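Problem: given the chain below (139 residues), write out its structure.
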Amino acid sequence: MLLCWCRLRAGLLALLLMVIGLPFARTPAFAGDDLFEVLDVHVDETDQTAAAARDKALAIGEQRAWDILMHRLVDPQAKKMPEFSASDISDAIKDFWVSEEKTSPVRYIATLNYNFRPTRCARCCCGETCASRPPSHRR
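Solution.
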């Protein structure tokens, strides 16, 4: 009898968790989206050398990707977006990859993609103004 009661409680608990979790499940439109993934960040920078232009473009790309991510995470009712250092942003990046790239002797053009570390992002932005909502669109 005790074993049956334990199984029943476990089953009811599982059912309750499924019912509670349904409103938070992703809809099919967002099934492939990842909240902490920012794709298609276009950069086009010029400098004295291609290497210098690339370094400049990567720094600008990180900042643009971070801004896109912050617009997803921070409550839109917040009066001011939080500001972060380049070091904070770099620490929050899990990895990045280049999907298109062109260079000349003084120019670097690329499409960059970033994955951010959720725990680092939460530490950075979720103190006061974090919105727990799925992205409404992907940029």
